[in-house]
Amino acid sequence: PPASPFTELDDNVVNFYGMHGLQEEFLLAVGGTTGSGSGQRFRAYTVTPGGSATVASHSHLPGNTAGIVRDVWMGAANKACAVGDNGAAWRWDGNVTWNRVDAPGGANVPFTSVVMRNDPQSSAQRLLADQCYIVDGNANGRLRRLTPFGWAKGLDLSPATATVPLNDIAITASGDIWIVGEDGRVFHYPEP
User: Fold this and answer.
1) 13 vs 25, which has greater pLDDT?
2) Which pairing describes strands 53-61 and 97-102: parallel, antiparallel, or unpaired?
3) Dihedrals φ, ψ of 51, to 5°?
4) Mean pLDDT to the nearest integer, 40-62
5) CB 19, CB 28: distance < 8 Å
6) Phi-psi region of 150 (alpha: psi -120 to 50; beta: other; left: phi over 0)
7) In what order do the strands lie in the sheet containing 26-33?
8) So what's the pLDDT on residue 189?
9) Among 63, 109, 72, which residue's Cα sits nearest to residue 92?
10) Phi and psi (nearest 5°) for 40?
11) What SS3 state is found at 127?
12) 3-class SS at 124?
């Protein structure tokens, strides 16, 4: 690598907590600010051939809610979900707007992580690619599923019960879901 392989692309009052991309030319980053002007922040980083990059701020509707955005995951080049504090989840329109969807039943839970299925091969998998799998950091963490039509019935982590906060979620190419939480909890769940 060259003597200085790193380039600082952004330096402002935003704290970033999550970043994801499907290819090296385009990444999404999420976070937030505190104090005056507090609220959620969404950014896109586009890398051009030759290595230069541009930063674009995205908007979100209906506007700020309490807390910050904690995680983001792209399911396709034009689809992504992000999650954050106080039961807020967002869907990306593939352009520059993120639309907020509040937690089912007005639940005020801290969403900690999100995934979407990548590169679906069949028509059934393409439907699943539009769904966001979300975990929360509540004392009794839950796995939730946000579909293009709203929140699906809750998924059960049985036979084990998550009596601890859940911190992260991952999904394999075959659709298996893995979840980790406090007290050494690890869950494996086949995709519905």
Assistant:
1) 25
2) parallel
3) 100, -10
4) 86
5) yes
6) left
7) 15-23, 26-33, 39-47, 53-61, 97-102, 88-92, 79-84, 69-76
8) 80
9) 72
10) -80, 150
11) helix
12) helix
Q: C-alpha angle with apex 149: 167 to 79, nearest 5 degrees?
A: 60
Q: What is the pLDDT of residue 17?
A: 93
Q: Is the pLDDT of residue 119 over 60?
A: no
Single-letter code of the amino acid located at 97: T
Which range, 60-64, 125-129, 172-176, has the best average confidence (pLDDT)?
60-64
Contact 76, 82 (CB under 8 A): no
Helix, coil or strand: residue 125: helix
Do residues 70 and 17 make contact, with C-beta atoms less than 8 angstroms apart? yes
Q: How far apart are CA 142 and CA 82, in angstroms?
A: 17
Quick one: which H or E segment has residue 117?
none
7-16, 47-56, 105-114: range with lowest mean pLDDT? 7-16
